[in-house]
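Task 17 of the worksheet. Students: predict the tertiary structure of the chain below and write it out as structure tokens. Keep your answer in the requested format; marks are given for formatting as well as content.
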Amino acid sequence: MKKALIAIFSISVTAGTLYLTYSQLKDYLIKKLLKSWTEEAKKQNKELNEEQIKQLKEELDKLYLWEVKLLANYSEKAILRAPEKEIAPMIAKLKEKKILERADLKPVDSILFGT
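Model answer:
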């Protein structure tokens, strides 16, 4: 009986730790993305107001960690104006995973896609 309780407790602690790590990493990436988008908007003489930032955060929360990570990688390359051959596969992957359909990122379309 004691071994079973120890096993259950160990699994619970491990699962809790993994979930906490997952959520903290996702929050960190979202904050990093929002900060870079805000800075880029200022460089382009545009402004992201508090309501737009809040809406973007809610939209990014809908995504999984690996999708936020993919979006962050694409965003970094888009902001740095990387060559089309580097960006095209990322855009294809974003469309394939339907990330842009599940998260409404209209306030940053001009930053991400130049539209």
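Marker's comment: The radius of gyration is 18 Å. The chain has a mean pLDDT of 88.
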